[in-house]
Amino acid sequence: MLYSDANNFGDVTHRKNAVLMSANRTAPTSLARRIAIVSAPFAGGALATLIAFLLFRGSFPDKVATHFTLGGTADGYSSPGAVVGQYMLVFLVEAAGTAAAGFSPRSALTTTRALCAFSVGLAAATAYFLIAVMWSVSTSDGHSAQLPLLQLPVAVVVGVALGAAAWFISRRQA
């Protein structure tokens, strides 16, 4: 009797595990894979921004506008080399913050799919906005740089659109 109870207990445990595994259709994602999923969009955004910087650098003034007022007028300046460093730092901070949020038990970004879509959207919006700033500065004399106010909402729309595309693409692949 004791032997059959032990077998029965093992059978129940085996069935519970089988039910849990069948309910969870997606395999658990390893830590390294999740970090790669978070980092890849930011690395791509940093690369696109770096390429744009290299294309625009010949037309930059000695001091590049790095900060703008709410009206779009430049009020902070740095050298072109410092600008590219600051832009790369923005992507690094965003990647680290997204990774931290994605691994937090209280985050809404606990699924790999949500983490992927959020990372793509944020990286795309940031890259678009930073490239728009560089374009605006490259067409100015350096002291009268004006960022069109429309660029911020366009960056948000670009980020949402690419994040949604990543969401739907990841759904098809699952």
Walkthrough of the structure:
The chain has 174 residues and is mainly alpha-helical. Helices cover 70% and strands 6% of the residues. It is built from five helices and two strands; from the N terminus they run ααββααα. It has helices spanning 2-23, 31-56, 80-103, 112-138, 151-173; strands spanning 64-68, 74-78. Strands 1-2 form a two-stranded antiparallel ribbon. A hairpin with a 5-residue loop joins β1 (64-68) and β2. α2 (31-56) packs antiparallel against α3, α2 (31-56) packs parallel to α4 (112-138) and α4 (112-138) runs antiparallel to α5. The longest helix is centred in the C-terminal third of the chain and has 27 residues, at 112-138. The chain is elongated, with a radius of gyration of 23 Å. The model is unreliable at 1-10 and 14-27 (pLDDT under 50).
Average pLDDT reading? 77
Question: What class would the helix/strand composition place it in?
Answer: mainly alpha
Helix content, binned percent: over 70%
Portion in beta strands? 5-15%
Secondary-structure element string: HHEEHHH
Based on CA inertia axes, which overall geometry fits? elongated
How would a textbook summarize the main sheet?
A: 2 strands, antiparallel
Q: How big is the Rg?
A: 23 Å
Strand elements, count: 2
Rounded to the nearest angstrom, the distance between the terminal CA atoms is: 46 Å
